[in-house]
Amino acid sequence: MWGTAGLAYQAFAVRRKKHRDPGPRRILADFLIGAHAVRNDLPLLTLDDRTYRASFPRLTIVDV
Fold first, then answer.
1. Integer distance in angstroms from the first to the last C-alpha of the chain?
2. CA distance 14 to 37
3. Cβ neighbours of residue 7 closer than 8 Å, sequence gap 6 or more
4. pLDDT (tens place) for every residue of the chain, 64 residues total
5. Which is the most buried residue in 5, 10, 18, 47, by most CB within 10 A?
6. Is 9 in contact with 26 (CB distance < 8 Å)?
């Protein structure tokens, strides 16, 4: 799970740098939550679906 979260975080950092994204920075815990949901095939309730959709394409996301 840590490996999945680390790879997703690394890809996020590359996307953020490439697009010079001024949006809020994410912490590794966000990616641990996403990796846990993917690994256990659980849906994720979030207010920020953009980051999770980009980082975890197989994740089922419930928007609020």
1. 26
2. 23
3. none
4. 888 888 898 888 888 888 776 666 677 888 999 999 999 999 999 888 888 888 899 999 997 7
5. 5
6. yes
d(CA 46, CA 64): 6
Task: Give the integer Cα–Cα distance in Å for 19 and 3.
Answer: 24
Helices 2-19 & 28-39 angle (0-180, nearest 10): 130
Does the reported pTM lie above 0.90? no
